[in-house]
Every structure is written in structure tokens, then in C-alpha cells.
């Protein structure tokens, strides 16, 4: 009986050691951050130096030809998935890391000069601003006070206005294909109005983005911010989110993007509670410029974090850039210049 116990114990130890010997411990190594124009490599190692038959590497689910000198120069900035499928014996295992692509270089810094100052309704909690055919169109926020309005630039007079249902907090707006598109904040619903009469035609919905903040458009799509670092591209017919970019400088992401304007192929964006405008590459999300508009808030008779810059409009025909803010008493026409 004792000999059997000893033999059994030795057998258990042998099986355990043999089992331990078959345990593979893999490690996938990749950079955490990289500039968009740089190339990088990834590797897999087995900590016990056990044999590996083969490895397949993937970037965002696409098989790579090599794990060396991976080119990401044409990819959007932000978070991307790096994965490796490892084959050993009759088994396989998948490992995944994430890598963040940053802009190649730091953004250009801009200053400004004031060209003109115009009156602006101090009661308007500005959320969206757009120039169209000689007038400014503006959406305002706050529940029970949200409006859509048409405004004379020179006088600040509201010549046309409609109230938004009291249960909604109005947000950004834009004019596209002779329609006015307007967002609400937290209800994931937008409204489409007739341009001439402000009569509401229909609703549209955004299911993927967090909230409704800013809105503009390029020649084909609506462009929407949701309070994060993401800018969404929406189908102009259905309002459905079709893609997005993430907004990064060369060293960090930029969150809380707010009012938007599409100017000469770039996205201009307010950042909530900051008196600046950032200029974004719409293909990659790279922040290519930052305009410091410090001083305008005090000139508008306002102070405080909730009464900041929010409102960008551009007259392309006459190259005029207009800005205002929440409850500001002035609208400013400004020129931006690169800081020397």
C-alpha cells in the first residue's frame, strides 16, 4: 500500500510538471503612441521560449504583410487595434493591443484682429451660427428658451424666429440643400426646417454619437460634434452617422468639441469653456491650428465659464469670419493671422 501511494504521488507530480510545461505565456509588444507619419513594429514572444509555428499580425482587423515598418500615414488619428493570432501545435491564441496615432506636428498658433463689431442679442444663448445670403442664422439653447432665428448682421435685429418645443435644449444648426438642420442636446433627435418659412418638415435621429452639440456640412455630408473628441459625418438625407474622426494634436486628444463651421476644406471648432477655435483636418482629425481669441469675451460684456465663445460663421464670397458667444452682446468680424 505504501509503495502504491508513493508511485501515485510521483505520477501526479509528473503529470502536473508535464502539464505546466505545455502552458504558453505570450506577450504582444507594440508602441502606445506614435506620430501619424512614423512607421512602427510589433512583436510576439513566448516567455518560456517555447516554439511557435507561425504568427499573423493585423491592424484594425486587416492582415499585415509584415510586423515590421508598419505604415499608418494615411490612417485617421486616434485609437487603433493591433492584434496577433499565434499558431502553436494544434492550438491558436489571439492577443490584442491598442495604439494611439497622433498628429505629426504641433498646431500653428493664430492671433486675431477685429474688423467690425455688431450688436448681438444678449439673451441669445448661442449654440449654432451660420451665414447665408446676407443674413446670420442662429440657434439658441436652454430648455424653454431655445429658438431658431434669422438675424440682420448690421443691426442684430431678429427678423424671423421660431421657438423650439420646451422639452428640448436647442444645439448646433446648419443650412444644407436649402434646408435648416438643427440638433438637440440629449434627446438624440434633430429637426429639419424649410429655409424660407422655418416650418418643421421632419425629424432625424443620431443613435451612435453621445449627444448633439455642433453642426456644419461639407459638399456631401452633415458634420456633427457630440461633446467628445469625435466628429461625426452624417448622411444628409437620413441623418444616420456614417463615420467619424477623432481630434488629436501631436501630444493629446481634444475633447468637448462644440460649435462647428466648415471653412476652405477645414473644420473650425469651438471647444467648450475655452475662448479659442481649433482648426481640424477632416480626413485625419489632426489639429492643424489653434486661434487664441482671448479678450473677445470681456469685450462682449460677459464673464464666466458658461458665457464663453460659441458661434462661428463664414461668408465665403466676401471672406468674412464672424464669431460670437453665449449671451454676448456683440458679434465680431475678425481676421486670423499666424502668430510670428
**CATH fold assignment of the largest domain:** Methylamine Dehydrogenase, Chain H
Quote the average pLDDT: 89
Low-pLDDT runs: 2-21
So how many helices? 2
Form type? elongated
Distance between the termini: 93 Å
> In total, how many domains does the architecture comprise?
2
**What is the CATH superfamily classification of the largest domain?**
YVTN repeat-like/Quinoprotein amine dehydrogenase
**Strand tally, please?**
29
Q: Return Rg in Å.
A: 27 Å
Give the % helix. under 10%
Category by helix and strand content: mainly beta
CATH 2nd-level architecture of the largest domain: 7 Propeller
Tell me the major beta sheet.
8 strands, mixed
Strand order of the largest sheet: 23-24-25-26-10-29-28-27
Strand content: over 45%
List the SSEs and their pairings.
Elements: H1 2-21, E1 26-29, E2 33-35, E3 39-40, E4 43-46, E5 54-59, E6 62-63, E7 70-71, E8 78-88, E9 91-102, E10 108-119, E11 126-132, E12 135-140, E13 147-152, E14 158-163, E15 170-176, E16 179-184, E17 189-194, E18 200-205, E19 215-217, E20 221-225, E21 230-235, E22 241-246, E23 257-263, E24 266-271, E25 276-280, E26 287-292, H2 296-299, E27 309-315, E28 320-325, E29 330-338
Parallel strand pairs: 2-9, 10-26
Antiparallel strand pairs: 1-4, 3-7, 5-6, 5-8, 8-9, 10-29, 11-12, 12-13, 13-14, 15-16, 16-17, 17-18, 19-20, 20-21, 21-22, 23-24, 24-25, 25-26, 27-28, 28-29
Describe what is shown at a glance.
This protein has 340 residues and is mainly beta.
Describe this structure as you would to a colleague.
The protein has 340 residues and is mostly beta strands. The protein has 2 domains: 21-102, Immunoglobulin-like (Sandwich); 108-338, Methylamine Dehydrogenase, Chain H (7 Propeller), CATH 2.130.10. The chain has helices spanning 2-21, 296-299; strands spanning 26-29, 33-35, 39-40, 43-46, 54-59, 62-63, 70-71, 78-88, 91-102, 108-119, 126-132, 135-140, 147-152, 158-163, 170-176, 179-184, 189-194, 200-205, 215-217, 221-225, 230-235, 241-246, 257-263, 266-271, 276-280, 287-292, 309-315, 320-325, 330-338. The strands form 7 sheets. Strands 23-24-25-26-10-29-28-27 form an 8-stranded mixed β-sheet. It has a 5-stranded mixed β-sheet with strand order 2-9-8-5-6, with no helix packed on it. The chain has a 4-stranded antiparallel β-sheet with strand order 11-12-13-14, with no helix packed on it. A hairpin with a 4-residue loop joins strand 20 and strand 21.
